[in-house]
Amino acid sequence: MIKLTRRGTIGLGLGALFAIASASTALAADTIKIGYPANLTGIQASLDGPMLNGAKLAASEINAAGGVLGKQIELVTYDSKSDSTTISTVASQLIDSDKVVGIVGFADSDSVLAIGPQVQTAQIPFITPGATSPKLPSQLGNEIFLAAFGDNVQAAVGAEFALNKLNGKTAYLLTDIGTEYTTLLSDYFVTAYEHGGGKILERDTYKIGDKTFTAQIAKLKALSPQPDFIYASSNAEEIGLILKQLRQAGINLPVVGGDGYDTPLLLQVGGDAAKDTYFTTHAYIGEGASPKVQAFIDAYTKSVGNAPENAFAALGYDSIKLMADAIKRAGAPDPAKIRDALAATSGLDGVTGTITYRPGVSVPDKSVSVIGVKDGKLMLASEAAPSFVAEP
Amino acid sequence: MTQLDYMLQQIVNAVSLGSLYALVAVGLSIVFGVLKLTNFAHGDVMMVGAFGVALLVGIGVPFPVAVICGIAAAAVAGFLIERIAYRPIRDAPDVARLLTSLAVTYIIENVGILVFTSSPRNFPLPAFLNTSWELSNGAITFTSINLLTIALTFVSLLLLGWFITRTTTGLGMRAAAEDMSAAQLVGLDVNRLIIVAFIVASAYAGLAGILWAAQAGVVQPQMGFTPLLKAFVAAIIGGFGSIAGALVGGYILGALEIFIVAFLPSSISSYRDAIVFAVLIAFLLVRPGGLLQPNREIKL
Amino acid sequence: MSREARIKLCVLFALVAGAVVAFGAPHVLSDYFVRIILLIALNAILVLSLSLSNGFTGVFSLGHVGFIGAGAYISGILSIPVQQKLALLPHLPAFLHAFSLPFLPATLVAGVLTALLAVVVGYPLMRLSGYFVSVATMGFLIIVNVVLINASDFTRGARTFTGVPLETTLPWVFGWLAITLFVLARLVYSPFGRAMKSVRDDTIAASAVGIGVLRTRLIAFVIGAFFAGVGGSLYAHYLGSFSPNTFYFSLTMSLITMLVLGGMGSLSGALVGVVCVSLLSEVLRSVERGFTIGEFSVPALFGASQIVLGFIFILIMIFRPKGIMGEREFTFGLTQRSAVVNQTEERKR
To answer: Which of residues 143-182 of A touch C (CB under 8 A)?
Structure first.
């Protein structure tokens, strides 16, 4: 009888698992592989999850229509766990083992910065569907493309909307200091708003995960004179609650913010309190949306089982279409050619707007939708490109 | 808005937040008192209670019934955790048990993410709990859920007080907390007492989780971690293992958090969590038994 | 050949083998496997530095990652090229703008400053025992996180700290691992090491025989923090960009898992733990994507790897509470200097 020692057991177990792991990767022969690292667990999961669903939907639509260059496309997905170390391991796995021709992924700048150096060294084109920091391409290099507008653009649109449409000459600024997106958005907003002649009366902060904002709100309430509106740079989890606590404290000022608001939670949690709230985002995904958007909503609902959770689902969808379009125009699944084709993208009509890259600029010029809440429903308040945009 | 109104408003805020912390801390303290176990999984039991309510209301169960079921689900979860994970290592060193409870947290959270995804979901609150009240011409406001939290904290803690001082099981729990082996010697069924302690603590966690979610408006698999950390601080400030201590600690912590934001400029108040934990460390060093147990010796 | 000579020969052999792997692997293996090896070695440094206080001295710190984070940020600030520093961190004090340090000095400075921080933190905290020290050090971790987020002139706040040159290569990590192992092995199996273990096993008896409990704990804590700072610097130069949340609870959990699974009272245990957990989680990460074997197909279950690791952890706690190695060391029959043997020998005397 074979007796297993302690070391033997460990070795055998690891060996078996490795065998399974390597067996799982050895399939699918003649496809075009697109890497899709996603933070499916950890703090980024609520954005990356819907985004992956959107991306998968786009891939299956493309494949149903015959694929690109006569081949099917395959999304190679790993969970990168919202962790920089895992992201860099996953990147080398995608680049070295899976030999992907392009990579699409992530909703936050942290993760893009973590993967950036490797895709840059390997010269693999990379599209981030959701990260909105306009500094990314200049920080990392020419392989990095954004599918969304930059935060400087949406902050400027928000500032101009507040100044011109809401007639807001003075503002109260509330910032979540726990994430890069919200801190950056606040900075850009202040630049654009003060450039437009507005004045910030008071600033306050909180940290992602906080559930009571009553102390900040009482402080705002004691402010004299009161500001014309509130700019709250906030993420989806908190904004509904902030609105609720504001209105319950009797503060009925308009609230303006960015695309972090854009989830069903805004209305579900905010309820009546969400009245007089405006936010800048990628596309209007609601009642009476354009037929293209409606078609996406229907297809998503059919494949996933629920309506798109947020605009990131649409951005994931658009990014795969963007990558596939570039592969088609490149004429061959060759990373260098794909990058050049990607940079030359012009007038690609997506769910979240039209994507065009100006020469040498990897952040698309997209129009920004301002969405307002009226009678418990979302409505398009304005759609604009800003006149002044802060430097990235 | 006068200075006095502002002060009163912040006190209202502090009491309401403190009640919530107290409720979580009490559950932690019950388990610690009996088992000397720092139960990190307490936060996840809160999550179970809140998710239970959200799911049941989602399929049409009336809110009050859902709340009772949610609390029951939390109690069952606590029972299972004790039975499966904690009982086999009851005699292991402190640190091993602390780590096991961390691992349990890790498992429950990730199972939650696997089943429900980590996207936040709406916590359905009936309209009658969503109303707000004002005093002094609207200068001071609070909501029904604030009032309910404060009221429920008091009622449930009175009940707990009655339970541990007037019932045989409760007295047994206190005996076991005092000296486990002596309790065993005089014929108490220690296993049963520990199970009861876990069920009671977990029911409290369930209630606290539901109230927490009601205030937060959303539920998420990871929602238990922040309240757990806060309750931890509250329990230690008050005196870990003591129920009155947890209550006092909860209110002190609530007041501390609110007043830091209310009366300090935002450049300092953004250090709130650091200040809170610095206070915690100071307590551990100077008065390790907490406010209510000055004589406990845990230093070198 | 005498035993001493054999030991020397074996150490030399290990060093040569390490050097061959460190310099040779990048030419033979794909980048992915090189990264796995590098991460294992890097985590080994971190876990070894953690084992000094948590394993050998019985001070179960949950704040070790706070030192790793401090080391990463300190060496990051020092080593970003001057040009980029002006752009990325415009509000730094002028003297920090004036220069940037190469990798090695930046790492050493990070280690030393982190050790100084450990003196300041440890002096009060090392008076605590049991889980109270765990809670207090966890408080330290949270304070470090809050300070990193708020001291935005130095750290860019919650925004990603980026621009750190990518200089952590296999030879660097293996070199530092060798130094860490050497220092720790000398320390743990010395009279001072016995003092550490006696403090862990029986504080009262230790102080009764004249061992300064506070002093012993503090020294272990500070030396551990030095290597944590060094490891943090290596980490920073491996990732290139990171944020305060890189150095928070999830890293704490994974380091502690490695240490406890391997065995807290043994240096080889720390290494075994790192290798097992790293390989296991790598494999699980690939398996959880779902796979097909013949007719049988398993769907993707993202997050399953964490659950499996959690269960393995609990099972080890129940059935092998001292970890895989317990307090034994791999000695390959070369030396009697393993902890257990040591104790029996001492008892005989």
So the answer is: 177-180, 182
CB burial string B240-277: b at 16+ within 10 A, e below: bbbbbbbbbbbbbbbbbbbbbbbeeebeebbbbbbbbb
> What is the three-class DSSP state of A332?
coil
Is the Cβ pair A89, C283 closer than 8 Å?
A: no
Q: How far apart are CA B129 and CA B147, in angstroms?
A: 9
Spell out the SS3 assignment of A154-210.
HHHHHHHHHHHCCCCCEEEEEEECCCHHHHHHHHHHHHHHHHCCCEEEEEEEECCCC
SS3 C84: helix
Q: How far is the C-alpha of B236 from the C-alpha of B214, rounded, in Å?
A: 26
Dmax over CA atoms of chain A, in Å, equals: 87
DSSP state of B258: H
Query: Residue B122 is inside which H or E element, if any?
Result: strand B121-122
Contacts of C241 in chain A (CB under 8 A): 84, 110, 113-114, 116
Q: Does the distance separating the beta carbons of A17 and C284 come in below 8 Å?
A: yes
Fold topology of A29-149+291-361: Rossmann fold (3.40.50)
φ and ψ at residue A82, rounded to 5 degrees: 55, 35
CA distance C102 to chain B (A): 33
- B133 to chain A: nearest residue by CA? A248
Nearest alpha carbon to residue A157 among A314, A277, A281, A312: A281
pLDDT in tens, chain C (349 residues): 677 888 888 889 989 999 998 898 888 888 899 999 999 999 999 999 999 999 999 899 999 999 999 999 999 999 999 988 888 888 899 889 889 999 999 999 999 999 999 999 999 999 888 778 888 999 999 999 999 999 988 998 888 898 899 999 999 999 999 999 999 999 999 999 999 999 999 888 999 999 999 999 999 999 999 999 999 999 999 999 899 989 998 899 889 989 988 988 899 999 999 999 999 988 988 888 877 666 666 777 777 888 888 898 888 888 888 888 888 888 776 665 544 444 444 444 4
What is the Cα C32 distance to its own chain's centre? 22
- The alpha helices in C80-129, defined as continuous H runs, are 82-88, 94-97, 103-125
Cα–Cα distance for residue pair B278/C296, rounded to 1 Å: 55
How would you classify residue A262: left for phi > 0, otherwise alpha for psi between -120 and 50, otherwise beta? beta
Q: What are the chain A neighbours of C242 within 8 Å (beta carbons)?
A: 84, 114
C239 and A84 within 8 Å at the Cβ level: the answer is yes
Tokens of B145: 């859920």
Please list every residue in chain B whose beta carbon sits closer than 8 Å to the beta carbon of residue C321: 89, 92-93, 96
Domain A151-281+369-384: CATH architecture, name and number where available: 3-Layer(aba) Sandwich (3.40)
| Residue at C170: amino acid letter | L
DSSP 3-state of A257: strand
- Is residue A73 helix, strand or coil? strand
Asked if A95's CB is within 8 angstroms of C31's CB, the reply is yes
What is the spatial distance between Cα B49 and Cα B54, in angstroms, rounded to a whole number? Answer: 9
What is the token pair recorded at C295? 């007719």
From the number of C-beta atoms within 10 Å of its C-beta (0-12, 13-18, 19+), residue A332 rates as exposed
DSSP symbol at B87? G
Question: Can you tell me the distance from the alpha carbon of C318 to that of B104, in angstroms, rounded to the nearest whole number?
Answer: 13
A357 SS3 class: coil
Please name the amino acid found at residue C270: A
Q: Where are the domains of chain A?
A: 29-149+291-361, 151-281+369-384
Facing residues of B115 across strands? none
Q: A241-275: buried (b, 16+ CB within 10 Å) or exposed (e) per residue?
A: bbbbbbbbbebebbbbbbbbbbbbbbbbbbbebbb
Answer whether C199's CB lies under 8 Å from C211's CB.
yes
Strands B121-122 and B218-219 come out as antiparallel
Q: Do the beta carbons of residue C284 and residue A17 sit within 8 Å?
A: yes
